[in-house]
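protien #1 (seq + structre)
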Amino acid sequence: MLTVALAGKPNAGKSTFFEAATRDPVEAANYPFTTIDPNHGVAHVRTRCPCLDREERCGNDTCRDGKRYVPIELLDVAGLVPGAHEGRGLGNQFLDELTNADAVIAVVDAAGATNAEGEPVEVGSYDPVEEVDFVESELVEWLADILDRNWETIERRSRSPDFDVDDALADVLTGFGASEADVAACLRAIEYPDDPKHWDDEDRHALAEHLRRETKPILVAANKMDVAPAEHLERLLDLDRPVVPTTAEGELALRRAAEADLVDYDPGDDDFEIVGDVSDEQRGALEDLQDTVRTYDGTGVQEALNEAIYGMLDRITAYPVEDQSKWTDATGTVLPDAHLLRRGATPRDLAFAVHSDIGEGYLHAVDARSSRDVGDDKELEEGDVVKIVSTA
């Protein structure tokens, strides 16, 4: 399962974002370091379910009238403060929690109502762009420190006649979320001395910057958009990186209201309808939230998750089935599973995603839409429904 981590300074709304996206209750309060231990939960990305191409909806628990919700892991890391990579605010402990994250959502206080330490200040008095810069720099410094701490080992290995810098760095960095391919790609992007003994801090820092971009891509959730000064939002949206305005509090309120049958709302909708018996005070609050949702085409929480997975990580959704005509598994469940695969993935990749034994025994695949065999090298596309034929 892919993992997205929420990072940022204290009191920016990470825990509220987490609770809204997972519906797992967490402690949230108006003071720094409410979260100490990381919170792990299951959130979902939303896509178009293939059942919309059939006469009847699939009835799957993760499909709401053709809106398919695919699970991912969401991690809420305790608030970071400047100097976290040096241990400030238990920063190293918190940064290490990001090791297995595939992507990072930097939740920033777009309202500028908290300072660098996460302490409340007057709305608009703090520049949220500084939050973005500091999250990125702390991740880079964290990776650079990992390289520094392990460089003596790499230098010793370089004395061996069969030394390969790619392999040596991969051995160090795969434990921190970097693959061999990531390391190789980063080394190709920079200039560096052949002999590790001649590397300096600038060389290691350059590698750390590329590793951050390659292994920990960052999306900015410009949170508290409903109370943020317009100029703050404009500056954030002008950044040369993915930015999604969000109101985590608004999303949490809507999910609670939907669970209580007060509103008709599915996560990611760009509008909602008040359908339950609400008090005048509740109606006023919901109508204010409705104005925000209509203005921004949603609360932004689902959009941020979707952009992290389908945008930054460039994933597609594929659906393995056993019965190619009915699109069911062995028990008759229609479109039972959805897998998030890298763009360019093949039917064999999907087989391994289902189970390693299915992948090892892979024979061929059938496009369930056309009932035709597909080549092993066919690149799957978003929404493909595939029957895998395997000896397993």
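ok now protien #2
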Amino acid sequence: MSALPPPAMLEITCLRRVRPWGGDPVDIAMADGVITAITPAGTAPIGVREFDGRGLLALPGLVNAHAHLDKSWWGLPWQSYGGEGSTEGRIRHERAERDRLGIPSLERSAYVLRELVRHGTTAIRTHVDVDAELGLRGIDAVDEAAAAYQGALDVRIVAFPQDGILRRPGVLDLLREAATRPSVEWIGGLDPATIDRDPVGQIDAIAELAADTGAGIDIHLHDPAELGAFQIELLVDRAARLGLAGRVNVAHGFAVAQLDPARRRDLLAAMAEVGVTMTTVAPLRVPQLPLAELDAAGVRFAFGTDGIRDLWSPYGTGDTLGIAWQYARAAGLARDEDLLRVMRLATSAGAWAVGREVHDLVEGARADIVLVEAENPLDALVRVPERMLVVAGGSVLHVA
């Protein structure tokens, strides 16, 4: 199969008659990929390339804080799920089948990126598998797929040791090599207790490597309750001792929602003290991470899509807004202020995951803008409407 053609991109100078966060209609002027002015509708100077928003709701681009751009079979014929239910069983199934499906490859990564963009995502933190069989081929594929967007799309990589570190000779060296790549900003890990059977050993290995290379840590942690909490405490301790404050993320972190309230309060306070963050894909089979408690403790939080139509699961659309809806619904959130907070987490408040301090519809911010037909952000969250226009870095990447 030949590579997908580069996406059609058109640099835009002005969005007219749009409603940022549901407010009054305005014109949003852009230049060099940045929002340069926001003025009442009809007052921006006439530009060369404009789009009439017709009163559509404008939101910042969606931030996908946990993706797997290298792993999908989307774009190929339907693949029947054949893996075992456990994490270990799914790893074995993926290793057995991935080569047959061209995973990883430019074609597969490009297809997933196109779907994420179509759903309004403009910034992505993606885990990419690194192991002795693959080497760094997955990183090469994702880098090439992202390069087709010529800088409009913000794609940042976690080098992810899907099959373990200590139990697979050579993986730690591959992670060190991966950390020298410009697009790789974090080193991953996976269930140190249940995959490597050595929580202290795996966490020490990745923490020391992160300290040596300047990378951050983004670890998948599915282990439940006290077993998971113990490993989070190890990460907190290493972050403090090795100068990794603000550079450690726990993905999934089911344990946090499974602790008793007092234990959880203390753990979240310790995480906040050294800037340990969390990301969730809002799985339905476990309790959701407690938004109010995370916010009260000061633990940053964001949403991701996880794998999309891959050898772990046939589910997934690439829509981070859909994950935000799933989280809000599963967590029982219904008040306006809570729904708005969820929308912020999927957009402006999730920007920490790609290293941005400002990601919003304000002057000076990167011109990442999504238009939808909705009354306000709350309406957009509960209905998950089609993305009518997606602008990233001042370039139109999708028009419905």
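The radius of gyration is 21 Å.
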